[in-house]
Amino acid sequence: MEDVLTAPALAPPVGMASGPLGAVQAAAREIARQTAVQARAVAAFAATRPASADRAQGEPGAMSPERWARRAGMLRPVSEWAAQELAVALSISTEAAESLLERSLTLVHRLPLVLDALEDGAIHPGHLWCLLEHVAPIADDALRASLERDLLAWMAGRVATPAQVGDKVRREVLKRDARSAADRLARAIRQRGVSARPDRVEGMSVVTALLTAPEAAALVAALDAYADALPADPGDARSRGEKMADCLLDLVLRPGESDLPPVQVALSVVAPLGALLGGDQPCEVEGLVVPAEMVRALLAALTGHPFAAASDTAASDTAASDTAASDTAATSTATTSTATTSTATTSTDTATTSTGSGGGGRGAAVDGSPASDEVLLGVTAAEAARYEAEAGELAAWWAEVERRVLAGEFDAEPPPQFVDEDGPPDLPTRPGPAPPLGPAGPADGWWARADRAVELAGDAVLTARQELSRARRLVTTAARADAADEAAWANSPAGRVTTAPDALTALTAATDHARAALTGLLAATGGGGLADRPRLVLTDALTGALLTLTDLPGLRRAAAQGGGLGPPGPTDGYRPGAALDRHVRTRDRRCRFPGCRRRVPRGGDLDHAVPWPTGPTTAANLVGYCTGHHRGKHQASGWRHTLAPDGALTVTTPTGLTAATTPPPC
């Protein structure tokens, strides 16, 4: 079996140019190499400054419990004074030095393959932030190493900006570690809010609203639509951004005085079939990766069709528990829906497409019935009850420890004593009334007090060992229960949907409720929360590339006629027909220029790779660009854009560098 720690062969994604541009590339790669060299050196320096040299917790003058608890885990083995020494050496703040220490230690100890790629110049420092933020915190060493390797293999030979890498990282983390991602999202939702901070220009401020991805996308799209709806005025010199800001102020500060009409906005939502059947497969809202549960809730609110929720996924179902592990079909299907919700401010247009199968809510509740023994797979009801009781004891014990730490009880120490006797100073005595005094003699001196202190220390050590033993037992029990919970989820309908190799197997593994909800969505014809009929996407089972876009009536017609499905036919004329336009925009979704992640404008023209009328208006000759790169394709001299029949785009620069992109998987 291949070692997950073996790094893929990595090299910079493009060759070296000549002239000044080549010098720019060489400098960038040297910066990357020196960044890696610095990280290794900082980690080596940290190893020479162990925390064991600092005062331990509880000693006078030690770091406060609050600061110690907030300190990054990677820094706890390092002396707190190492950051100050590093700050002096580099002329940076102590906070910046601590960040450099944490980043360097994380790269060396948790992302070694990333550090090697950085040193080889295959990636640059800008690629590090998303890997440090999303991959490094994964606790499972094998999962983290496997994900690190796969991400570097994906980046090999690809022109990928930090934003593109971040999108890929979030998608893969959500796919492989959905449980932790769901916990992070739940915590983040509780932190939603609005704040303001001063701008760099005096008299200006920046208002920040922390929202869910669908909320934020709908808000921005609605303000954009309001700006478009303003009456045309030749004397209005405001930019589009100014108009959007003024509309926001009118809607919030002067709601009764505003004459702005209601608007409708469109949001593109991409969801795999498994996500709609109760799984955890990552989805997209306006190109942003979001959890499946968020999309299910959005579609349920828009369409009125309740989709499988996390609480439904562990329930037993009449579907067979064992399904075929593979399918002879080379493609898998997924759903695409278009939705618009009309309110005074927003409405939503959603589209769902598939990259594969999904899986659903982990952590199914277990009741006290005997059936729970089967759900926990080996943990009996008595053991589960004992785990709950011990978990309560652990919580109470930890709360008491925190109370004592915050109260400073562990910091207590007698004040310095100055004695004239020849011997050690007085030591603290056992709490409670003082023992009766006996006849004068050595027993009343500091030796007796030293003996009592040794007894107290022995009692404290014994108590600490008992508490640690109990804590280890509780952790072991919790780990066993967590593993049983994970196994129960894997054997639930949602777990079977997650591991299904294709769409047909996922449909077989899903619950009756999930299949009914999906059928109701696909049978919808528009109206209410839907602006158009939901659509089906046929994708390549290996690459996830779009093969064709259809709907339920079209699928039934193809089945009745015995014909196959494929992309729409050519259009006679410059502008593609509605079906062809929808197909190409669903295939590309974002600008296809290497490194660009801008959305293809909804109202903008698709580009003919071979100019019309020399080139036909077909899916194989159309490609989506953002406005800037569309202009550059026609106006920048010396560039060549070559589109292959499968949608792969190769761009050649005036200096001869080439970069290729393929349509994103659906």
What can you tell me about this protein's structure?
- The chain is mainly α and 666 residues long.
- Helices cover 45% and strands 8% of the residues.
- The strands form five sheets. The chain has a three-stranded antiparallel sheet. A three-stranded antiparallel sheet has the order 6-7-8.
- Strand 12 (649-652) and strand 13 form a beta hairpin.
- Helix 1 runs antiparallel to helix 5, helix 3 (82-90) packs across helix 4 (94-110) and helix 6 packs parallel to helix 8 (162-176).
Number of strands: 13
Mean pLDDT: 76
Continuous helix count: 22
The proportion of strand residues reads: 5-15%
pLDDT below 50 for ≥5 consecutive residues: which ranges? 1-5, 313-379, 410-430, 437-443
The gyration radius over C-alpha positions equals 31 Å
Outline? globular
Task: Determine the N-to-C terminus distance.
Answer: 30 Å
* Biggest pleated sheet: 3 strands, antiparallel
Helical amount: 40-55%
Question: How is the largest sheet built, in terms of strand order?
Answer: 3-4-5
Q: In terms of structural class, how would the helical and strand content be classed?
A: mainly alpha
Provide key terms for this protein.
666 residues, mainly alpha, 3-stranded antiparallel β-sheet, 13 strands, 8% strand, disordered N terminus
